[in-house]
Amino acid sequence: MSDSDVVQIQLERHESAVTVAHVTGDIDLASADVFRAGLAESVAACDALVLNLDGVTFMGSLGFSVLVETHRETERRNVRWGIVAGSSPISRPLKITGLEQVLPIYPSVSDALDALGEGR
Q1: End-to-end CA distance of the chain
Q2: CB 75 within 8 A of CB 49
Q3: Which residues form the STAS domain (predicted)?
Q4: Which of 24, 26, 28, 29 is nearest to 11 (CA)?
Q5: For position 120, what pLDDT does the model report?
Q6: Rounded to two decimals, what is the model's pTM?
Q7: pLDDT band at 118; cut points 50, 70, 90
Q8: Which of 16, 47, 97, 106 is most buried, taking the most CB atoms under 10 A from its CB?
Q9: How many other C-beta atoms can be found within 10 angstroms of the C-beta atom of residue 78?
Q10: What letter would DSSP give residue 62?
Q11: pLDDT tens for residues 18-56?
Q12: What number of CA atoms fall less than 13 Å from residue 104's CA on the CB side?
């Protein structure tokens, strides 16, 4: 396993209190728990979250389950959030599975920031 295969989450805080979580690497059986824990921690610590998945090279079914769990948790905590998957390999599976109808998906980080109030 190379370093590029390991899932990593880097947080970036914007002026309007929106946190952008930049995710890179593979999200599979071996890394889904790290992904889940990182998202749970991010959701617990912010009022608005943009999850940038453009750096994700692979996402297995557990990763998609984590997205659904996170969506439920953001609703429970009243956290505004959005997912950016415009150019990543997971954008097509999001469409095929119908998750794009359920999850708040945006084509870019700037679009998500605008929707969550960053640009205004």
Answers
A1: 42
A2: no
A3: 18-116
A4: 24
A5: 44
A6: 0.90
A7: low
A8: 106
A9: 7
A10: H
A11: 999 999 999 999 999 999 999 999 999 999 999 999 999
A12: 20
